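Hey, sorry to bother you again with one of my protein questions. I've been puzzling over a protein and I'd love to understand its fold better. Take your time with it, there's no hurry, and the full record follows here:
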Amino acid sequence: MKLRAKILLLIASLMGILYVLVAAALLPEMAGPSVRKSRERGEAAAQMLATILELIPRDQRRLALAERREIFNVQPAPGEWSVCDGDDRVVGWSRPEAPPERLDEKQRDGMNIVRHIADPEGREAWTLYLAAPPPDLALERELWALFISMLVGTVMLGVAVYMLTLRLVINPVERLAAASRLVAGGHGILPKVPHSERTDEIGALVRSYNAMVDEVNDLRVNLERRVHEAVQNLEEAQKKLIVSERLSVSGRLAAGVAHEINNPLGGMLNAARSLQKKAEPGTRDAEYIEMIVEGLGRVQNIVSSMLRFARPTQERGRTDLAEVIDGALLFSKHRITSMNVEVVKEYPKPGETHAVITGNRAELGQVFLNLIVNALDAMAARESPRLLTVSAGLRDTRAFARVADTGLGMSEETRKKAGEFFFSTKAEGHGTGLGLAIVNHIVNEHGGTMEIESAEGKGSAFTVWLPAGEEGANVPASKQDARAGA
């Protein structure tokens, strides 16, 4: 049963009880005087009839009762009556039909006014039984009017109470129930109940519900956002897992290739050194052989670095960043010359502390070789000026090395993705997307960081920050060119 029906049934029951209680309280007060007046009229009529019968001789009483002339003329007019003789036999009564021989119990109860009629001759007395006359019809009409008025008033009061309850209780509760069902099974933004200015418990309940809906909506929106972010993070993690697996396979393959190259490379290097010993110093052949020996040595270092990268080692020592950068420049000298690139070196001046760190010289050489090659690639599609600026120095307890170019530069989106595995802006077949990723890895292994500055059309700058070695840890910052640590 719904709340409306329950409240309606409750109000109807209460109004019915109220109607009965009011009627029980008012009716006796209104009917009492009329009943007493009717009783008094009956008593007066009985007294008058008894007096008349006492004045009539005994032998004429039966005739008088049979004709009933005097009795009908008595005022006030009697109601139903009966007269019994000394033997309790009926000798006359008010009804037109013949009287019974004796009155039964029910007839006696109906005529409850009793008068004994004295016998002038001293014989056995008769008895008069008389019923009180009915109340006035006007009183009955008043009572009916009262009953109807009470009934109409009770119904109107019930309707008023129901309408008031409907407005103050039922409607707000039903709105809350409907909104709660939407909260239980709804999706999206949950609806709120119309704001109420009431200060009672219902108003407080509506305000509390709306506050709860606001909080749930906020939580749902945030939850959807967090779920979306979690899904994105999961997708990124899956991509990185795939990349890691590919790197793992590539690393094992590269380690195998490097191992296979290392043996013939060592033989070639030994042969070149033998030729170097036989060449005349200062001749062009000696110069070329020296370049071959140096190149093969660098290739051997790179192969060894690949092997060490696949199987990390802790073999590190005192390393001057300026010397490492010079080595990378020497290895790229042929391309620098062919592209007509101007190289500017900004190193510590004589007497100033060099940027010395504790690190793996071969791995750091791979870092700066990658950065220089990337800078040359960035300037390949641009005409003059082609300027490559390399810097090294100290800042407090950190050493830095910077490679800057005047190439095409990078967009903000490209700059943010630089360093991710397999991300490359070069044409297919000209880049693997591993160069900066390997640089990041080596720098991180040395406890350092790399900063990238770039703008489209204005070139790029890569700055590597590394912990300074014991010799330069507490030395004041060197007086470098303003661009050195930018």
Remarks:
- Residues 58 and 245 are 142 Å apart (CA to CA).
